[in-house]
Amino acid sequence: MNITCVESMGIPQTRFEELKKHYASIGHTFTYYMDRKEDEATLIERMREADIAVISNIKLPESVLKQCSKLKYLSVAFTGLDHIDLKYCSNHNIKVQNAAGYSTTAVSELAVGMMLDLLRNIVTLNEKIRQGGSRGTFLGRELRGKTVGVVGTGAIGTATIRLLLAFGAKVIAWSRSERPEVKALGVEYMPLSDLLKQSDIVSLHVPLCDETRGLIGKAELELMKPTALLVNTARGPVCDIPAVAEALCNSTIAGAAFDVFEQEPPLPSSHPLLSAPNCLLAPHIAFATEESFAARADIVFGHVDDYLR
Q: Which of 9, 80, 102, 178 would disulfide-bridge 296, Cβ 3.0–4.6 Å?
């Protein structure tokens, strides 16, 4: 079979050369690319002859997939699959498999890191000291003792809970399904409205689907404390982002941190969060660490090997 990895995936060329030798030894061809191109013409060119393709979070619509008539299997180097036309794949017998678990630690650590920054204003104070300023009368807040509402208790949400408990926070949760191991940690599940009312910090960890799209909107934001913080490392459209920006401008909530948006960065200059106060932004980086990318390669090419077998 023809196996194609359409992007570099953050792993060294030496690893790709090892994979090329491995697949040649079992009778398959392996093509890889050391750059990332997201335009449809390039994707079609790279995938047209592929029986198996490896890709991360580059959007794969029907207009690309229908030009790849040989495609039988997609090993996706990403947890979410909302960037792929799964209906087309299902209708054309293209198996799609994600890489669950590779970034659990990475995402949970960034979520807590964003909470700490919002509480202690690390980025803002860094700029202040570089401009010749001082602490002045600034006082931060501690994570210990805060009530953190974790929305979604899958693998990443549960890992975040464990970190929060280590910091001495009180954790409450809402999820579409409740996990006994989370309850065993002393975490109470409750309706989302109650969680929003009680939380000092709300951290989002749900996948994007019809049920979760717009989960946090104007009405939900108005339930939160005016001192509360919102952290989104899940998917941008889980929130009504203009409503979040408005809530920040109106002091409905005290701060927010977003690593995900309606689109992949760069963001347009008119994006509402860019001008919203007390808003920490990152360029969809939570999943991206040296450790997670190495683990991701093991997972996605392990899936390819399993499929070939």
A: 102
